[in-house]
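User: Please fill in residues for this 65-position structure.
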């Protein structure tokens, strides 16, 4: 077999594997969606707590002046 023929077969096999693997991805289930929603809510809550802490720190520094 020639070098070009082997390269073609290799590319064909890799392309087929790529298409097969991307086609096998499962859709998110309800539990996974709920988990992601909980993660987002926890992250937003943490951000708000951090903002509140910064405001308290700024207020305390203003009182020292």
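Assistant: Residues filled in for all 65 positions:
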């Amino acid at each position: 077999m020639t070098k070009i023929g082997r390269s073609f077969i290799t590319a064909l096999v890799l392309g087929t594997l790529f298409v097969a693997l991307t086609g096998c991805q499962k859709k998110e289930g309800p539990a996974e969606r709920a988990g992601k929603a909980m993660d987002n809510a926890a992250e937003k809550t943490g951000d708000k707590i951090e903002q509140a802490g910064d405001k308290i720190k700024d207020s305390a520094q203003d009182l020292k002046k």
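For context: The chain has one domain: 3-64.
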